[in-house]
Amino acid sequence: MILKGENISFKYPSSDNYLIKDLNISLKSSEIKGLVGDSGSGKSTLCKILAGFKKSEGEVIIDGVKKTKKNIFNPVQLIFQHPELTMNPKWKMKDVLKESWDVDHDLIKEFGIQESWLNRWPNELSGGELQRFAVLRALSPKTKFLICDEITTMLDAVTQVQIWELVTKIAKERNIGLLVVSHDKDLVKRICDDVIYLEEINNN
Amino acid sequence: MSEELLKVSNISISFIQYGSGLKQNILDVISDLTLDISQGEIVAVLGSSGSGKSLLAHGILGILPSNANLSGTMHYRGEPLNQNLKEKLRGDEIALIPQSVKFLDPLMKISEQAIGDCTEEEKEEKKAIQREVFEKYGLSKEVDDMYPFQLSGGMARRVLVSTALLSNPKLVIADEPTPGLDERSIKETLNHLRQMANDNVGVLLITHDINAALEVADKIAIFYAGYVIEIANSSDFTGDGEKLIHPYTKALYHALPQNDFKLTEGHQPLHDELLKYCPYFERCEHPTDICHETIPKLIDIGDKKIRCNRANEFKTGEF
Amino acid sequence: MNLRTKTLLIISLTALILIAIVINSFFIEASSLTTNFPMRNMPPSFEHIFGTDWMGRDMFTRTLKGLGLSIQVGAFASIVSTIIAVILTFVSRLNKYLDSFVNWLIDLFASIPHLLVIILVSISLGGGLFGVIIAVGVSHWTSLTRVLRAEIKQINTFEYIALSKSFGKSNLWITGKHFLPLVLTQIILGTILIFPHAIMHEASVTFLGFGLSPHEPAIGIILSESMKYLATGAWWLAFFPGLSLLLIILIFDLIGDNLRKLLDPTKAHE
């Protein structure tokens, strides 16, 4: 299966300049691709476009199909840099997971999530723990492609390794295509098979 | 011999928070923190985001929220740092570089905010100084009349840095200055800090970015579960990490992608999970019985500080 | 005891007082309100602490019963208002045009003086309990709707809403599971804070003769009837009922304020 972004162009209504112009990108299942770019260069916007969070010119094609129907689980999942912003503060952590899929207990343990955390509110946990939940939530059996937008940038080095070990392991097991977006060239070199630079594929 | 500017001794900061229902819990965010900063020195406090290290900055500036409790002592240039002195020094001899432009008043022009509260007579003089400092940081006259939302990421960084320097401070606290920035801007910001240190200003750098800390700091205090577990020289972070003592510091060093990207299992205890024994006990590869009984103290080993029951063994090479 | 406990205590106590008044009013039998002409227009005494009225009825009992009725009217009117506010907010989320329409509706109703709307609606519904409740309810939904609409717009920008859609959840599910818990506080607060207005307006409208009838003696009636006898110096006929009304409204305000203190996340931890 291939996730393709064809001739993606995007500009903010208030601006004259295109942030992203005629960009082409593709990701194969079980491929781990790195995307390196400066902040403000549009990589977060590109992530959102590929995951269907933002509309743009051009097409996002998943496995040969152009439009995703509404109300179905999006096979392209996006994990954000700041997990605290991606969870409803009035929900308990176990509901955060349940919204996406029924995670089995062994996997929860494998992710280093303690039982007691499931009954906590998001504001009781810190970035590292929340990101574990965010990643686990995104790894539903229905997920075919996972876009990771600077997911460990805010975390300490030890937690960073833990999370990437888990993500790459499961991605390989389930044949999920990974797009690793980061400004850390060393990190990208470590985990990715292949690296693309945003400035090279962006024609703005 | 450079003067010791800030001496923080056994500082603990805790919060009273409501749990579920009517119970009030005490959250220990910072415990038994000791460090000092001298003129021309950059000391980094390294900890993960949300670990509470920013509270150290707030504690020094005297802007902790009302439900926070601070114990321990702080001294500034030999004088005890009480609330009065904090209020006198902040914005003057002690300046803060906040995390982002969100900490600026969105409805005030940049120049006005930078100059701050002053009398009409003082205004002219202050405006001249402000213009000069801003110019030095590559901020043209147009920036003076802009509002915070009009600043681009890099410009915003430079505004925050230059504003902090307007009062010619002796101690600058940089609170998480690097998130959201591209490599160039990070290098630039760190350079600014280096320049300040060269001008004999003491800098307290609070960050989660170990690479940034290694690049610019002289000493790095490693934060773990609210405790400082090691204060090492940044030059110790070389080779195979032999010069690093605490297992967590070693773990951090080896976990870096440019080193071994080594996996260490376990997680940091949450704020309300803190125990009466060494916070690293659950993950430690070399625990002893004492480690499960008491919290080790921060002791001096050579020119470093370390909080570990087995620290002395390091001296003899048994570790 | 900490602030939260104190606040909860205050809320419980005041709520209890209100409920007591309402329940008590059900138990006030007609016998305590019998006319007793030899005793008419007596000033306050130990036997009749609020005095008696022109028919010799004990003013204290009358006031209590009147308060009970006023609170009930206020309660129902508040609920009607809240329901309208929630429905309109829901409607405004459906599409852009409906949103503008709701906005226009809010501006329209907000610009007409409340009393006018109440009188008009009350008259057209034939007055009485039903008419007054609907009338007051229909005029007080504007501020709550404004607040809810703004909250909803803000919540819509949060990432977890978009994520919910990416997990395949329907708009209805998202509204119920995400939006509702987040705005629930506002809704409850809003309802409680409409109470005092509702009660006041009911009293005014009845006082003016467009609301309840003398058979249903809420405070408004009591006050309007006592006007006729004020000139004779029977000050207690208006003073005590009026004061009690004021106190009730202050109690509601107290509940609302304390509830806000409890639920406001920024002050939640003092």
Can you describe this structure in just a few lines?
Chain A is of the alpha/beta class. Chain A contains seven helices and eight strands, in the order E-E-E-H-E-E-H-H-H-E-H-E-H-E-H. In chain A, helix 4 (127-138) runs parallel beside helix 5 (157-174).
Q: List unreliable stretches of 5+ residues of chain B.
A: none
Low-confidence stretches of chain C: none
Q: Which strand order does the major sheet of chain B show? A: 6-7-8-3-9-10-12-11
Average pLDDT reading of chain B: 85
- Please give the count of helices of chain C: 10
Shape, principal axes of CA atoms of chain C = elongated
Strand content of chain C: under 5%
Q: Number of folding domains of chain B?
A: 2
Q: What is the average per-residue confidence, as pLDDT of chain C, rounded to a whole number?
A: 82
Question: How would a crystallographer describe the biggest sheet of chain B?
Answer: 8 strands, mixed
Total number of β-strand segments of chain C? Answer: 0
| Total number of helices of chain B | 10
Rounded to the nearest angstrom, the distance between the terminal CA atoms of chain B is 34 Å
Order of helices and strands of chain C: HHHHHHHHHH
What would you say this structure looks like, in words?
The complex is a heterotrimer of chains A (204), B (319) and C (270). With 204 residues, chain A is an alpha/beta fold. Chain A has 7 helices and 8 strands; from the N terminus they run E-E-E-H-E-E-H-H-H-E-H-E-H-E-H. Chain A has a 5-stranded parallel sheet with strand order 5-6-7-3-8, with helices on both faces. A 3-stranded antiparallel sheet of chain A has the order 2-1-4, covered by helices on one side. In chain A, strand 6, helix 5 and strand 7 form a beta-alpha-beta unit. The mean pLDDT of chain A is 90. Chain B is an alpha/beta fold and 319 residues long. Chain B folds into 2 domains: 221 residues, P-loop containing nucleotide triphosphate hydrolases (Rossmann fold, 3-Layer(aba) Sandwich); 88 residues, no CATH class. Helices cover 29% and strands 25% of the residues of chain B. Chain B is built from 10 helices and 12 strands. In chain B, the strands form 2 sheets. Chain B has an 8-stranded mixed sheet, sandwiched between helices. A 4-stranded antiparallel sheet of chain B has the order 2-1-4-5, with helices on one face. The relative contact order of chain B is 0.14. The mean pLDDT of chain B is 85. With 270 residues, chain C is an all-alpha fold. In chain C, helix 2 runs parallel beside helix 6, helix 5 crosses helix 8 and helix 9 packs antiparallel against helix 10. Chain C is elongated and about 80 Å long. The model of chain C has no long low-confidence stretch (mean pLDDT 82). Chains B and C meet through strand 1 of B and helix 1 of C.
